[in-house]
Amino acid sequence: MNPLQDNTTPDGEDRILDPGTIVTVAPADWIDEPPERPFVVIDGFKAPLYTIAVLGGDGFQYPNQPRELLTVVTPARIVLDEQADPPGYLIA
Questions:
Q1: For residue 8, what pLDDT band results from cuts at 50, 70 and 90?
Q2: Is 56 left (phi over 0), alpha (psi -120 to 50) or beta?
Q3: SS3 77
Q4: pLDDT in tens, 30-50
Q5: CA distance 76 to 83
Q6: How far apart (Å, rounded) are the C-alpha atoms in residues 58 and 73?
Q7: Residues in a beta bridge with 23
C-alpha cells in the first residue's frame, strides 16, 4: 500500500470517504483549480457521490462529485503556497 494514498480497501474496492478526508480531483471541465490543489470531503451522504470544497478556500462547495474522480492523500503532503494569488494549499 502506498503510504501517500489510501484509495482502496484490502479487497481492492474504492473505499468510502468520510467527511474531513483530504483528496485531489482528477482533471474535469467543471473545476478551475490546479490538479495538485487539495479538497476536503464535506459529506458523503449520497455515496458514491460526494460534496467537496477547496481546502482553505472560500467555502464554495462542489456537490455530487463521483468517487472515481477523487484520490485520497495524506495530510503530511499538504503545503502552503504563499506565492500563489491568493495563497493556498497544494499537494507536495
A1: low
A2: left
A3: helix
A4: 777 777 889 999 987 776 899
A5: 20
A6: 21
A7: 39, 72
pLDDT for 35 equals 78
Q: What is the mean pLDDT of the chain?
A: 81
Q: Return the percent helix, strand and coil in the chain, to nearest 5.
A: 5, 40, 55
Where exactly are the structural domains of the chain?
A: 22-91
Kindly state the DSSP code that residue 80 receives in the 8-state scheme: E
Separation between Cα atoms, residue 53 and residue 25, nearest integer Å:
11
Q: Which residues make Cβ contacts (< 8 Å) with residue 91, sequence separation at least 6?
A: 24, 36, 37, 38, 73, 77, 78, 79
CB atoms within 10 A of CB 39: 25
The CA distance from 64 to 23, in Å, is: 15
Query: How many other β-carbons are positioned within 10 Å of the β-carbon of residue 7?
Result: 18
